[in-house]
Amino acid sequence: MKNKSLGKIADYIQNNDNYLIIGHIDPDGDAIGSIMAFKFLLDNLNKNSIILLHADLRKEYEILFKYLKPQDYHIYQNQDKLSDLAKYSNAIVLDSANIDRLGNFKEFIQSCFKVNIDHHNDNSEFGDINYVNSNESAVGKIVYDLTKLMSINIDEQLGTAIALAVLADTGSLKYPNSDPASFRLIANLKENKIDIVEINRFLQSFSSLEYLKLLSKGLANIKTDKTGKIAWLVLSNSEIKDLGIEEQEIKNLVNYPRDIRGVEVGISFVEKEENFIDISFRSLNYVDVSDIAHKFNGGGHPRASGTKVEGNLNQIINRVLSEVKKNV
Ligand SMILES: [Mn+2]
After folding, report:
1. For 145-196, what is each residue's pLDDT tens digit?
2. Tens digit of each residue's pLDDT (9 = 90 or more) over 88-132
3. Per-residue confidence (pLDDT) for residue 248, from 0 to 100
4. Does domain 209-327 have CATH number 3.90.1170.30?
5. How wide is the angle at C-alpha 237 spanned by C-alphas 268 and 255, nearest 5°?
6. Exposure string over 111-139, b if 16+ CB within 10 A, otherwise e
7. Which of 8, 69, 199, 272 has the fewest CB atoms in 10 Å of its CB?
């Protein structure tokens, strides 16, 4: 069922109970912020719910986990443990373009009643109720609108989660998707005493000195094509292993090649596991990088997309660059 208004979702959650809340695998700030915000929204309605996590993010996202109790979330261990969640018959799925993005929880979620809330224009509308609006800068903005629609008070925890989601997906209101509504949302939350400065500091700071050293290796490896319109950063698995960085710490490296003046397409190739390359694409003005990601079984938005490809690092770089060159 395709749904053009949030009213159906508001009615559904008012009239039901026991919700799983899940976002996409390898979550970004919008995924984490919006699942947390949804938890706080449901708490406000006295609904029973639990967050599903693909990996343990408690340390990295302490800024939000400080508002949660251990029984508020389930960190994936194995398929057997999922039977503990049998009483939850509804799933709120956020920021996930398709069901494959749910990783190990995919099969388990299939049997639930699914409310799919997203802003990816390639969303497959896998839900029993779907609200997909690619004009929204972040899923956190959609959760905010739902909060307003349901007249839920935005307290510190709910406001912090929403602001983190929107600031993450808009690059702290710097990216082209930062529409007036995103600025208004942040201004409203700031008026509600949400600490926007602290959230931006969290999003823009480095997780450790080792991470900064890894970044310096990545930066030293940046190259551009002859036109100067394509720039790419490369990190091999041996470079990552040498510094002992956790793979989930590595993120947003694609912003560095993208931020070189004159560059239209920035790319990062990060070999998190040997022969498994995480590729991220960002574009500035006109190249639809979601089209390029789709050619390599990935997805995303016109200005921000990604995929994961198995194979030899240098061969994959060459294949991807030749595809990008056709589009620039
Ligand atoms: Mn998002």
Report:
1. 999 999 999 999 999 999 999 999 999 999 989 999 999 999 999 999 999 9
2. 999 999 999 999 999 999 999 999 999 999 999 999 999 999 999
3. 74
4. no
5. 20
6. ebebbbbbbbebbbebbebbbbbeebbbb
7. 69
Q: Which CATH architecture group holds 7-204?
A: Alpha-Beta Complex (3.90)
- Alpha carbon of 88 to ligand 1 centroid (Å): 25
What separation in Å is there between the alpha carbon of 253 and the centre of ligand 1? 17
Return the structure tokens found at 219: 């930066």
Q: CATH 3.10.310.30: which residues of the chain?
A: 209-327
Per-residue pLDDT at 293: 97
DSSP tag of 127: S
Please report, for the chain, how many H helices and E strands are present, in that order: 13, 12
Domain with CATH 3.90.1640.10 in the chain: 7-204
**What's the whole-number average pLDDT of the chain?**
95
With a pLDDT cut of 70, the percent of the chain lying above it is 99
Q: How far is the CA of 238 from the centre of ligand 1 (A)?
A: 30
- Centroid of ligand 1 to alpha carbon of 139 (angstroms): 5
| Residue 240 in tokens | 């990552």
Residue 3 has pLDDT above 60, yes or no: no
Cα-to-centroid distance, 227 and ligand 1 (Å): 31
Nearest to 304 by CA among 286, 326, 320, 283: 283
